[in-house]
Every structure is written in structure tokens, then in C-alpha cells.
Write a structure and sequence with these properties.
Elements: E1 32-36, E2 48-52, H1 57-150, H2 167-178, E3 183-184, E4 193-194, H3 196-205, H4 215-218, E5 223-225, E6 235-240, E7 243-252, E8 255-261, E9 265-270, E10 278-281
Parallel strand pairs: 3-4
Antiparallel strand pairs: 1-2, 5-10, 6-7, 6-10, 7-8, 8-9
Helix pairs in contact: 2-3
């Protein structure tokens, strides 16, 4: 017999072959003792025991709380990053809107300045034309006065004897005088309101003569005649012949009929009241 036959074995049994018995007070957080009984070995072998500290419920709750806190922190960080991204996008949008608004205002100011400059230019051009027309009328008046004085009559066109129109001229003059007192309306062609060229066109229609609608087109027709050699029915114009801005009909006796403006309407006036620039004859 071996001299070691009665010596108890101190070898630890294999845990994989043992049956674990858990007796742990988890709810109270107490320590559990696991008794490991050897499945093999001598019958009289001394039991080997191990003491293992099991996690308590408190420690489990603490771990779960820590995980929740980590998750909440991560979510808060993600939300903060998202908020910062949105704020950055909003700031960029505001900056772009402000830039676009500034650019639009600058463009609007530029256009407004261009329009003011164009209006000023047009006004200056109109004033220049008006001054030229007045100078032309003054020159014609001077010429008429000089011609009258040279003839020894000592009278002006206003004092000329009334001429009796006949034929086409009679129809034109009669129609024009019949409209005296009617209203002046821009673009008016009758029967009770006229503008200057509309009245002249309608009067000449009585003599079966078709005229263009616009004043400068009417003054460009026929033959040019001097203001000292007018006949009833002649077309008087103000401005240049190819660029007149007003027309009327000479009715004899140094007078004309024309649709002047919205304040006066259709009137019969002396040439001296507003001396025309020239005249044309169509028959």
C-alpha cells in the first residue's frame, strides 16, 4: 500500500464537472456561498469550498444608472451638435438674405437714378424744343410785321380782311368753326371732344381729303406756304414742319380754329395770340 493512500487529496475539483448551488441573497446584497462538491475522487476526500462575492442589486442599479447617464449624455451631445448645425444654417441664410437685399436695393437705386437722369434729359430736350419753337414764332411774327409795314398798310395779319372761302376750303372752315366750344381730350376724334390733329383730320374729311392722324405727319403733307400768304383751309403748325407738336386750321381774317388744350378746348383765336411756325396747303 502506498504510503500516501490515507492522505486526503488537496486537488481542486473541475468546475465544469461540478454542480453549482447558488444560495445568494441578491435582494439584500448579501454574499452567497457556492459549495463545490467533487464529482470524483476518494470517498473520504475533504470537500473543497470557494467563497465568491455576487453582485448586489444596488451595484446592478448603479451600473444601469451609469449606462443611462452615458446614453443621455451622448444624446444631449448629439442634440447640441444638431442645434449648432441648425443655428449655423440659419445664420448663413440670414447673411445671404441680407446680402441679396442689399444687392436688390443697390440695383433699385441705380435704376431710379437712371430714370431720374432720363426724365431730366427729356425735360431739357423739351424745353430746348419749346424755346426753338418760340424763337421761330417770334421770327415769323417779326417777318409778318416787316412785310406788312413794307406794303404800306400799317396793319398786321390780325387786321386782314375776312376772306370768303369757297369749295373745299369752305367745307373745311365751316366744320372747324362748328366745333368751337367742344372739349379737348388727348386722342379725341369727335364728335364732341378733340385733340388738335383729330380736329384737323375730321375737318379735311369734309372735303374728301384723307389726312394722317398725327400732327407732324399732317404738317409734312402738301406744299409749304408763308404766313404772309395764307388762305382759308391752310394747315398751321407749331414746331418744325416734319416735327410739329400742334396743328390748327386757318379760317381767314387773321384767325385760326384749333383744339388747344384741356383748359380752353376748341377755340377760334387770332394768329397773334399764338403765332404758328409755318403753314401747308393741300388744295
Amino acid at each position: 500500500m502506498s504510503h500516501t493512500a490515507h492522505i486526503p487529496s488537496h486537488r481542486k475539483p473541475r468546475r465544469s464537472a461540478s454542480k453549482l448551488a447558488l444560495r445568494a441573497g441578491v435582494a439584500g446584497g448579501v454574499l452567497g456561498t457556492i459549495a463545490v462538491a467533487g464529482a470524483a475522487g476518494p470517498a473520504n476526500a475533504e470537500p473543497v469550498t470557494e467563497t465568491i462575492e455576487m453582485p448586489t442589486l444596488g451595484s446592478l442599479d448603479a451600473g444601469s444608472g451609469l449606462a443611462s447617464a452615458v446614453a443621455a449624455s451622448a444624446e444631449a451631445s448629439q442634440q447640441e451638435a444638431l442645434d449648432q448645425s441648425l443655428q449655423s444654417q440659419e445664420d448663413q441664410a440670414l447673411q445671404k438674405a441680407a446680402k441679396d437685399a442689399k444687392k436688390a436695393k443697390a440695383e433699385a437705386d441705380r435704376k431710379a437714378e437712371a430714370e431720374r437722369a432720363e426724365k431730366a434729359r427729356a425735360k431739357a430736350e423739351q424745353e430746348r424744343k419749346d424755346a426753338a419753337a418760340r424763337a421761330s414764332r417770334d421770327s415769323a411774327r417779326t417777318q409778318l410785321t416787316s412785310t406788312s409795314n413794307d406794303s404800306g398798310t400799317g396793319s398786321s395779319t390780325n387786321d386782314a380782311p375776312t376772306q370768303a372761302p369757297s369749295g373745299a376750303a369752305a367745307a373745311i372752315v365751316a366744320f372747324a368753326r362748328a366745333q368751337v366750344g367742344d372739349a379737348y381730350v388727348t386722342g379725341g376724334t369727335g364728335p364732341n371732344s378733340w385733340d388738335c390733329s383729330g380736329l384737323v383730320q375730321a375737318a379735311y374729311r369734309q372735303a374728301n381729303i384723307d389726312l394722317p392722324r398725327i400732327s407732324y405727319q399732317q404738317s409734312s403733307m402738301g406744299t409749304s406756304v408763308s404766313l404772309s400768304n395764307l388762305q382759308p383751309g391752310d394747315i398751321l403748325y407749331w414746331g418744325s414742319r416734319s416735327g410739329s407738336y400742334h396743328v390748327a386750321i386757318y379760317v381767314g381774317g387773321g384767325k385760326y380754329v384749333g383744339a388747344q388744350n384741356s383748359a380752353t378746348g376748341v377755340v377760334e383765336r387770332s394768329l397773334d395770340w399764338d403765332m404758328p411756325s409755318g403753314a401747308v396747303r393741300l388744295f
